Amino acid sequence: MNRLFPYPVLTLALFVMWILLTGFSPGHVLLGGLVAALVSRTMLSLKPEPTGFRPSLAIFRLAGLVLADIVRSNFAVARIILFKPAERHSGFLHLPVELRNPYALAVLAVIITATPGTLWVQHDARRHVILIHVLDLIDEETWIRFIKDRYERLLLEIFE
Amino acid sequence: MIQGPDLPTWAAVIVGLLLLTGATTTLIGTLGLLQLKSFYERVHAPTLGTTLGAALILAASMVSFSVLQSRPVIHEILIGVFVTLTTPVTLMLLARAAIYRDRSEGASRVPTDGPRRTPPA
């Protein structure tokens, strides 16, 4: 199994993508399976670091949380743009993180940047601090606790 | 100019509503791009278009073509996935470029890189 499909998740993702793009038919299942199996093998020559990914229910919890937060902050940012509340001020935020896994950090970067109102600016790998710009920075502590409790805890569960 | 004459009314209403809400969300985002004051604030605005705006327009497309072709058409999900994965890359690159310029100009409103702690011996 591992010899044949060294990256089963990637193989599956490629196969699903092929089927979504071409439509479901026996020929495309065969062709897509072949392409997925062969193309995912090219990763062998790249030798990526092991991701430390642990499939668990936490993934779905995280996905749900992120979706809800994206919708909510869409409204929050739209309100700021349309009604220009006077007391709002934006600013930078230093978020200390316990995450060390580069893949987990990448996921956190996508989450924070994809959510309107927060933007990942840089990650200091020496001090393990992330610099985030927040559009509506009310209280630094609240934001730090929010990100740590909601995302980081789950990411620590998903990636070892 | 009617592109979907075979679309039943109920589907047309759903597709229309989804499209309009999505387009409005994206429009609000672009208004923010015009209106917000600093560069770092402006970077936040277009994310409205790449998240909820894009999602609603893709949903409209899925409903429309699923009804027209009487089978589930869901490859729009791929567009959503790739938009979500790639937008942060550009946004981060822009923010990094801006902060690099501000720091090299010695602007006071951006945090400095911070003292580098020496690793424990």
UniProtKB/TrEMBL annotation, chain A:
Primary location class: membrane
Transmembrane regions: 12-39
GO cellular component: plasma membrane
Alphabetically ordered keywords of this record: Cell membrane, Membrane, Transmembrane, Transmembrane helix
Domain of life: Bacteria
Family: Belongs to the CPA3 antiporters (TC 2.A.63) subunit E family.
Coiled-coil ranges from the UniProt annotation: none
Localization per record: Cell membrane
Membrane protein topology class: Multi-pass membrane protein
Pfam family, one: MNHE
PANTHER family to which the protein is assigned, alphabetical: NA(+)/H(+) ANTIPORTER SUBUNIT E1, NA(+)_H(+) ANTIPORTER SUBUNIT E1
GO molecular function: monoatomic cation transmembrane transporter activity
This protein's name: Multisubunit potassium/proton antiporter, PhaE subunit
From TrEMBL, chain B:
One Pfam family from the record: PhaG_MnhG_YufB
Transmembrane intervals: 12-34, 46-65, 77-99
NCBIfam families: CPA3_mnhG_phaG
The keyword tRNA processing is assigned to this record: no
Keywords, in A-Z order: Membrane, Transmembrane, Transmembrane helix
Protein name per the record: Multisubunit potassium/proton antiporter, PhaG subunit
Keyword hit for Transmembrane: yes
GO molecular function, one term: sodium:proton antiporter activity
